[in-house]
From TrEMBL:
Taxonomic superkingdom: Bacteria
UniProt KW Transmembrane helix keyword: no
Keyword Membrane: no
Native species: Sporosarcina aquimarina
Protein name per the record: TAXI family TRAP transporter solute-binding subunit
Keywords: Signal
UniProt signal peptide: 1-20
Length: 331
């Protein structure tokens, strides 16, 4: 009887030990899975997309060359993509549709803070690579329209960019400073290329174009007609900057687009942004590729892209990889 009892106890002990071993194996498997999940963001990047803007804008003109710099120096295949520019680019990066994008500094700030066109839709998964160059806010018309001031826009058909775009925000704010609103004009939601074609065909009277000068669309227009850029008078520029701190005074030099004299206006900044999840080492290599190779850019704005001014006017957090690059070169 005692022998049977001892045998039964032994069998129970064996069973308990076996279950404990299974439990340990299961826990280990779960731990391994969890480790795998925690490393899932450290994905290997075999392809990068750089969102630019419309084909007639400065973003697109520079984007192809910058994509080539990145691919050559990092070994990651990179392409520049046509897009709806700043606001759409921020949303696309948030949605995971691309990794890098050109944006206006004011639009990046709105996205980060959940303001203006991003109200209720904050973008906090994107950070800065660095600043590029000033983007001039240009109110373009043709000499034959007779439009010489902002007051002359009343009742006219004016291209203001796509709703929610950087150009639209700039147009709205400049109209406001001049005592006007979208209700005082006949707003047309056109991109730069469409604005050029519509001005040329007489279908619109003027167009807001926010881009680095010289802008391809305006140069194309100047090739077939006499261009006039409506000036922003000094007092109005001061008023605008007082209310919206990210603006700066700008001058379009005489000779640009065949203009007879310097034209005062305002500008915001152009910058590059990147998804936060891009690893620090890759972001560092991307930033280095852009700024080390910037002197090779053929566009007039290329000479303004410098590491020493790469953090100027940035209103959102800088990616750690980009910050590492600037810390090294700006010692």
């Amino acid at each position: 009887m005692n022998k049977k009892l001892i045998g039964l106890i032994s069998m129970l002990l064996i069973a308990v030990l076996a279950l404990a071993a299974c439990g340990t194996s299961d826990d280990a498997a779960k731990d391994d899975a969890a480790k795998g999940d925690s490393n899932s963001s450290d994905k290997e990047y075999k392809f990068l997309s750089v969102l630019t803007g419309g084909t007639q804008g400065t973003y697109y003109a520079l984007g192809g060359a910058i994509a080539e710099f990145i691919e050559s120096d990092t070994g990651v295949k990179t392409s520049a993509e046509v897009s709806q520019a700043s606001a759409a680019n921020m949303t696309a990066l948030k949605d995971g549709d691309a990794e890098i994008a050109f944006v206006q500094t004011d639009i990046a700030y709105y996205a980060q803070e959940g303001e203006m066109m991003f109200e209720g839709d904050k973008v906090d998964t994107v950070s800065a690579i660095g600043a590029l160059y000033p983007e001039t806010v240009q109110l373009v018309t043709l000499d034959k329209t007779g439009i010489k001031t902002f007051d002359d826009l009343k009742g006219k058909k004016v291209s203001v960019g796509a709703p929610g775009s950087g150009t639209y925000a700039n147009a709205e704010q400049l109209l406001e400073i001049h005592g006007l609103s979208m209700d005082d004009i006949k707003p047309q939601n056109l991109d730069f290329g469409e604005s050029q074609e519509s001005l040329q065909a007489g279908q619109i009277d003027a167009a807001f174009i926010t881009a680095g000068t010289p802008t391809g669309a305006v140069e194309g227009l100047n090739a077939v007609a006499k261009v006039f850029v409506v000036p922003v008078e000094d007092a109005k520029a001061d008023e605008l900057i007082e209310k919206y701190k990210y603006y700066a005074k700008e001058v379009i030099p005489a000779g640009t687009y065949g203009l007879a004299e310097d034209t005062p206006t305002v500008s915001v900044g152009a910058m590059l942004v990147i998804q936060n999840e891009v690893p620090e080492d890759l972001a560092y290599e991307i930033t280095k590729a852009i700024y080390d190779n910037a002197p090779k850019l053929q566009h007039a704005k290329g000479k303004l892209i410098k590491a020493e001014t790469g953090l100027d006017g940035i209103g959102i957090p800088v990616h750690p990889g980009a910050q590492k690059y600037f810390d090294e070169v700006n010692k």
